[in-house]
Write a sequence for this structure.
């Protein structure tokens, strides 16, 4: 009884509780709610704004129709209203100049190729793996059009292109004549690209040598070796006495013979002797000169003391380097709007997050106000 009466005695105010007892006053205290601070709200708002701005171009492309819009000319791709659009255009890539811009563990990767006729202002982004690349039976390309500077490899591509040596660009005789006679600093190639010309630009000019012909004699059953063909061509009055081929293999022999009467007379002599296994071609000599060394003559052009008639020029090419302009665009041939179906839900979710934390920021500022 004494123990029970001792336990029932009331506690003195401020008396500490034993270690194994629970203070009921502490349990009854109301837990303070953890508020969302303004720093967290501002951080989330900045993140949402950054993501929405970064994904705006992708969202624009995801809302494009499944059927690409038709573009008539490559030059029309430089219009500002076609950026991040799904387009289809006839674009012939310059297959002689390509840059590997992305490589993976496999052999292929991805390549960037300039489009002929665009003056290096339009590029194609294509699959560089021949095993996985889609087979194309025409030169029509479709995909997403983007400014080149928006892609992560833009600076590397510019550095690579600037480090490459000049590439040969073939031009027509009419464009060559016009540029040379007018003293122009540019010339337009057959594809439509504008090529810059400097005094140091190297010109490769192929000239037809008048009064000479090249004969290619094919090996036949009755004429297999050089003596047999030398005799046959000599009897036809085509090969001078003592003439020999300047090149030969097991299938053919190559001769250079005088042709003062022209190639037609040589062909007539061969037909008269039933020598149908001989090809008659003009002799073409290549001359490599600088643009500043060319001068306009009365009926052609002059290279030093040598004059070339316009009718004797068979081919002209200029060694011009590739240069990417500042407003260059690239057509991503592997992208389609349906691949970005998830962009709209993500964009809406980011907007809801921004509204939620904007409301939380307002409450936090009101709560902290004096």
């Amino acid at each position: 009884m004494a123990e029970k009466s001792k336990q029932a005695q009331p506690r003195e105010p401020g008396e500490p509780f034993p270690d194994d007892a629970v203070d009921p006053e502490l349990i009854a205290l109301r837990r303070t709610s953890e508020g969302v601070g303004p720093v967290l709200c501002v951080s989330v708002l900045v993140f949402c704004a950054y993501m929405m701005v970064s994904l705006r171009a992708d969202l624009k492309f995801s809302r494009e129709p499944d059927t690409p819009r038709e573009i008539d000319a490559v030059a029309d791709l430089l219009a500002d209203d076609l950026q991040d659009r799904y387009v289809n255009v006839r674009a012939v890539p310059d297959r002689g100049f390509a840059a590997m811009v992305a490589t993976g563990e496999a052999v292929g990767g991805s390549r960037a190729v300039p489009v002929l006729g665009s003056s290096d202002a339009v590029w194609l982004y294509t699959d560089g793996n021949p095993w996985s690349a889609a087979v194309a039976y025409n030169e029509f390309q479709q995909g997403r059009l983007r400014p080149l500077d928006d892609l992560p490899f833009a600076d590397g591509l510019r550095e690579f292109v600037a480090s490459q040596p000049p590439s040969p660009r073939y031009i027509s005789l009419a464009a060559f004549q016009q540029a040379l006679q007018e003293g122009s600093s540019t010339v337009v190639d057959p594809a439509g690209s504008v090529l810059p010309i400097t005094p140091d630009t190297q010109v490769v000019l192929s000239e037809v040598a008048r009064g000479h012909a090249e004969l290619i004699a094919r090996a036949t059953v009755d004429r297999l070796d050089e003596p047999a063909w030398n005799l046959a061509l000599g009897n036809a009055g085509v090969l001078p006495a003592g003439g020999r081929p300047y090149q030969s293999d097991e299938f053919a022999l190559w001769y250079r013979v005088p042709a003062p009467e022209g190639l037609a007379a040589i062909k007539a002599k061969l037909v008269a002797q039933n020598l149908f296994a001989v090809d008659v071609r003009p002799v073409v000599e290549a001359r490599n000169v600088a643009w500043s060394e060319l001068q306009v003559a009365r009926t052609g052009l002059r290279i030093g003391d040598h004059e070339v008639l316009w009718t004797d020029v068979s081919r002209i090419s200029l060694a011009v380097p590739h240069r990417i302009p500042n407003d260059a665009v690239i057509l991503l041939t592997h992208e389609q709007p349906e691949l970005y179906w998830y962009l709209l839900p993500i964009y809406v979710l980011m907007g809801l997050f921004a509204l939620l934390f904007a409301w939380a920021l307002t409450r936090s500022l009101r709560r902290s106000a004096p």
